[in-house]
Amino acid sequence: MRIRPQANGEGVVASTDVKGTTNGPSATTVTLVHGWGGSFATTWAQSGFTDLLADAGLGVIGVDLLGHGAAPKPHDPADYADLTARIVDALPDHPVAGVGFSLGALTLLRTAIDAPDRFERLVLAGVGTNVLAPTHDGVARILEGLDAARRGDDLDDLDTTVRLFVHYATRGDNDLEALTAVMRRPPGAPFTEAALARVECPVLVVVGDRDMVAPGDELAARFPDGRCVTLRNTDHFATPESFGFFDAALGFLGAST
Question: Could you tell me if residue 171 is inside a domain?
Answer without folding.
Answer: no
